[in-house]
Design goal:
Elements: H1 9-16, H2 23-37, E1 44-48, H3 55-69, E2 71-76, E3 82-90
Antiparallel strand pairs: 1-3, 2-3
Helix pairs in contact: 2-3
Length: 100
Amino acid sequence: MAEMRKLAREEVENLTQRPKVSGERTRIREQYQTFLADIDEGEGGEVTLTDGDNRTTIKNRLKAAAKNSGKNLVFIRSSKDVVRFRIEGNQTEETGIPQD
């Protein structure tokens, strides 16, 4: 039969607290934020993938950084080892829709 036990309130609180973001994740997020900060509307960027890089992960990191910066990022079709994009306007805080 399965073993059961009651959890104390402190144990439940410890289990439900969100773990702190690791230093590596924070460093990566800041790297993408810094990269996009230098790119203005109408300009673009390019990320060349190296061994171990995942195209989808890179695109997701770029999208998250753009959203946090209030920029509207549009990807440009490119080869499998390159991710290209351009910045088209800024997003509004309420809707996330590009401003005219």
